[in-house]
């Protein structure tokens, strides 16, 4: 099940809630749920990376955003990421029907500096890169066969959105592919194809491993 960053946490029984749930709820009254207003176009963060600011990188990030005139929604989203020990900010927004895909930039990471949040119509956000391979995935014949052939291969995010299909109930199934390889610079050994089922109201209901290819 997806890791869920929820404004409205009533659906936590269906989807696993993250530490961002409480902090997002705290900011929701002032800023509303995460939407396109949360995007921030990065200014220079060189002082934060080099330590010239004499403050922790996450503190420096929030201070820089405030000084640069970032929208309250953008600052609130960055605060939620910081609270979850994922210092970063939303750098792009892509509508996908009743949901949206938010690109997160993690400016202080050594390797993978981008990630993706799937934002439901209820304002809940799912990190599609976190725990890319779940315990239930490892129990499938497809994963066992792949792992036997490529024992050192692991997922390297961010996942790529590769398309969607309509469902009978008027919703959609969103497809994401994540490379599987031995190292950041290595060639791909395969890919993990995952679907997220969204109802016609735009609420993300479940995650499903489709195939490993």
The value of Rg in angstroms is 18 Å
- Principal-axes geometry comes out as flat
The overall pLDDT, averaged over residues, is: 83
Order of strands in the sheet with most strands: 2-1-6-5-4-3
Task: Please state roughly what percent of the residues sit in beta strands, choosing from under 5%, 5-15%, 15-25%, 25-35%, 35-45% or over 45%.
Answer: 25-35%
Number of domains: 1
Q: What is the fold's blueprint, element by element?
A:
Blueprint: E1 3-5, E2 16-17, H1 20-31, H2 46-50, H3 57-67, H4 72-83, E3 89-96, E4 99-105, E5 114-119, E6 125-127, H5 135-138, H6 141-149, E7 154-155, E8 160-166, E9 172-181, E10 190-198, E11 204-212
Parallel strand pairs: 1-2
Antiparallel strand pairs: 1-6, 3-4, 4-5, 5-6, 7-9, 8-9, 9-10, 10-11
Helix pairs in contact: 1-4, 3-4
């Amino acid at each position: 099940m997806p890791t869920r960053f929820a404004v409205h946490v009533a659906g936590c029984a269906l989807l696993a809630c993250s530490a961002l749930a409480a902090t997002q709820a705290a900011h929701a009254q002032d800023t509303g749920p995460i939407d396109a207003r949360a995007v921030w176009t990065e200014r220079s963060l060189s002082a934060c990376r080099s330590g010239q600011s004499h403050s922790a990188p996450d503190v420096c990030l929030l201070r820089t955003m405030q000084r640069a005139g970032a929208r309250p929604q953008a600052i609130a989203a960055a605060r939620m990421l910081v609270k979850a020990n994922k210092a970063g900010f939303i750098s792009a927004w892509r509508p996908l029907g009743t949901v949206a895909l938010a690109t997160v930039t993690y400016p202080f990471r050594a390797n993978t500096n981008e990630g993706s949040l799937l934002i439901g119509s209820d304002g809940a956000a799912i990190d599609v890169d976190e725990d890319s391979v779940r315990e239930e995935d490892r129990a499938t014949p497809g994963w066992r066969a792949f792992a036997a052939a490529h024992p050192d291969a692991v997922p390297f995010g961010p996942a790529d959105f590769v398309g969607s299909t309509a469902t009978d109930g008027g919703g959609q199934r969103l497809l994401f592919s994540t490379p599987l390889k031995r190292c950041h610079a290595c060639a791909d050994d395969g890919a993990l194809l995952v679907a997220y089922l969204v109802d016609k109201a735009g609420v993300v209901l479940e995650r499903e491993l489709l195939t490993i290819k």
